[in-house]
């Protein structure tokens, strides 16, 4: 007598829990992610043969635009609960006898780079129109009588001494303005910094040297 073969059904996998888990993770990352704000000015950086990358956190960025305005930016670090950017704003404000509200400090912490005197910063923070806000930039003062850029760098490194510094200069910017930024860094005992270039590497031959 022949054996009766039992028809084997293929295993059925219920994907519903996995889909639910995927959406839970997606929602978590959306709610906790910090998006980088768009820069206030486009800087066309020169090319380089260096492949060294600039760190994304704990970085002070000093930009020199093609019209020679100096922009300052600093991030909140890896742990955003430290509120480094807000503390730096309050320290510089205290230096110039200016007070910022908790709402202004919170808003400043997620804003982009800026290039204007400290007494104009409150209006810049509270301006809701992005185009009007960008039009307010006139450059951070670097005069010997009122060197506000030096103060921003000094207080930033006071709250986090290990801040790395990156200089991002436009290829059409005046070299003297970039040199002025380097001099101010050295006045703050910052002798190591990154010069930001674009991702397009340029081969240099002996004939070009």
Concise synopsis of the structure shown:
By secondary structure, this protein is of the alpha/beta class. Helices cover 35% and strands 9% of the residues.
What does this structure look like?
The structure is a single chain. With 209 residues, the chain is an alpha/beta fold. It has a domain at 59-195. Helices cover 35% and strands 9% of the residues. It is built from seven helices and four strands; from the N terminus they run H-E-E-H-H-H-H-H-E-H-E. It has helices spanning 16-32, 84-95, 102-108, 121-126, 130-135, 148-159, 175-187, and strands spanning 59-64, 70-74, 164-169, 194-195. Strands 2-1-3-4 form a four-stranded mixed sheet, with helices on one face. A hairpin with a 5-residue loop joins strand 1 and strand 2 (70-74). Helix 2 packs across helix 6 (148-159). The termini are far apart.
SSE layout:
Elements: H1 16-32, E1 59-64, E2 70-74, H2 84-95, H3 102-108, H4 121-126, H5 130-135, H6 148-159, E3 164-169, H7 175-187, E4 194-195
Parallel strand pairs: 1-3, 3-4
Antiparallel strand pairs: 1-2
Please give the order of strands in the largest beta sheet: 2-1-3-4
Give the radius of gyration. 25 Å
* Tally of individual helices: 7
Low-confidence stretches: 45-50, 199-209
Can you write the helix and strand succession as a string? HEEHHHHHEHE
Output the structural class.
alpha/beta
| Terminal residue distance | 94 Å
Number of strands: 4
What average pLDDT do the residues reach? 79
* Beta-strand content: 5-15%
Which shape, going by the Cα principal axes? elongated
Helix % is 25-40%
Q: What's the main sheet like? A: 4 strands, mixed
């Amino acid at each position: 007598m022949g054996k009766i073969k039992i028809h084997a059904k293929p295993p059925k996998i219920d994907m519903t829990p996995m889909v639910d888990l995927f959406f839970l993770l997606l929602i978590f990352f959306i709610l906790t992610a910090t998006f980088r704000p768009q820069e206030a000015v486009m800087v066309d950086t020169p090319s380089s043969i260096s492949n060294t990358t600039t760190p994304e956190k704990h970085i002070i960025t000093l930009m020199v635009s093609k019209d020679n305005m100096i922009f300052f930016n600093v991030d909140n670090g890896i742990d955003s609960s430290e509120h480094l950017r807000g503390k730096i704003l309050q320290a510089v404000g205290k230096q110039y006898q200016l007070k910022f509200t908790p709402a202004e400090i919170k808003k400043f912490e997620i804003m982009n780079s800026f290039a204007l005197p400290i007494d104009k910063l409150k209006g810049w923070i509270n301006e809701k129109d992005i185009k009007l806000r960008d039009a307010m930039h006139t450059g951070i003062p670097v005069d010997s009588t009122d060197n506000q850029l030096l103060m921003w760098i000094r207080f930033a490194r006071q709250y986090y001494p290990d801040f790395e510094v990156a200089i991002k200069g436009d290829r059409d910017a005046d070299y003297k303005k970039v040199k002025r930024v380097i001099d101010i860094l050295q006045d703050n005992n910052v002798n190591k910094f990154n010069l930001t270039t674009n991702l397009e590497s340029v081969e240099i031959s002996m004939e070009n040297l």
